[in-house]
Amino acid sequence: MIFLILEVLLQLKKNNEFYIRDLTIDDEFDRISEEASVKDAALKMKEAAIPDLVVVNKDDNVLGVIADFDIVTNLVAEGISAESARVTEIMYTIEPVTQDTPVSAAFARMQELDVSVVPVVEKNKLIGVATITDCWGFLPEEYEDKKGLIPVANPRFFNYSFSILMVLFYFAFGILSPLVGISGFLNAPVAGRPGVTAIYYLFEAHGGGFYVNYLDFQDIWWLLLTIYGIIFLILGLFSAFAIFQWAYADYQLVKLKRNWQSIGFVIGIANILIVWSLFLLFVMGGALRVSTTSINFDISGLLLSSLAIICLVAAVFRDFLFREQSSPAPKEE
């Protein structure tokens, strides 16, 4: 990861322009002859598990691209036979790019045709494809999002800093606070000890002179809760790391192969909801051995977990907060 970032930084141009060579060219592609039928193309897409094929002639020169969407809209919807129709009849024609093509030019080319793939050639020979998603993270500054509420001079830096801050808050509120005992999950009287109420935390319960580790209950359900407590910490660290990695890569304009933003977001929220659900399940199952009417959720725990979820949402949807500051209009002489 570090070497990838350094490599991209070394290739960064002074005008913040990137070229196709700066991208990781997608090698998960395949080609098909111009003489092939649409049925042949569909079978090849299914076999290779890809949505696009580059159409080439007998000299391996690029003629166009056929996508699964083209098959559906231009052939199936029109009632044309897939066996008789040739790929050249429904493919889209797009000028290939080279390693020296600016990313912004490749992006504009795909955007103009409303397609998602452009072939990459070297000495007129096909070497891969670039997708509109690949290009998005490498666009120059003028493509910065304009939909944020707060105008700032450097929205990419503010987005990055804001995401990091929100992830730290998420981890502190949602993961660390129940671990160190700042907040708990349940308030419940202790069975067999009248007048004693304990707060149930991540691995232990205590209050009013009562203290017990969940393993002390010597019950399979409390053992499972302890095991998930460990998983809870691991997933909390992983979700924070995933969003850290996404935020830093986005700031440095480094293309990641996985969508760490969504992975960290989903795991982080699901992790908090699951641990609360487990405690609720224990209440409903009578594991506390006291009347359910005397059991309450810990208010501080609910508040901090809710704040953690809000911070996680804010971290990944920060684009709605900051936007690029407009340059002042020149004064008239």
Molecular shape:
elongated
Can you give the mean pLDDT?
Answer: 83
CATH architectural label of the largest domain: Up-down Bundle
Largest sheet: 5 strands, antiparallel
Radius of gyration from CA coordinates: 28 Å
Count of distinct structural domains: 2
CATH class of the largest domain: Mainly Alpha
Q: What is the structural class? A: alpha+beta
Strand residue percentage: 15-25%
What does this structure look like?
With 333 residues, the chain is an alpha+beta fold. It folds into two domains: 11-141, Roll (CBS-domain); 150-323, Up-down Bundle (Butyryl-CoA Dehydrogenase, subunit A, domain 3), CATH 1.20.140. It is built from ten helices and twelve strands. It has helices at residues 2-11, 38-48, 68-76, 87-90, 103-113, 132-136, 155-180, 220-251, 260-284, 299-316; strands spanning 31-33, 52-56, 62-67, 117-122, 125-131, 150-152, 186-189, 197-200, 204-207, 210-213, 296-297, 322-324. It has a five-stranded antiparallel beta sheet with strand order 10-9-8-7-11. A three-stranded mixed beta sheet has the order 1-2-3. A two-stranded antiparallel sheet has the order 4-5. Strand 1 (31-33), helix 2 and strand 2 form a beta-alpha-beta unit. Helix 7 runs antiparallel to helix 10. It is elongated, with a radius of gyration of 28 Å. The two termini are 52 Å apart.
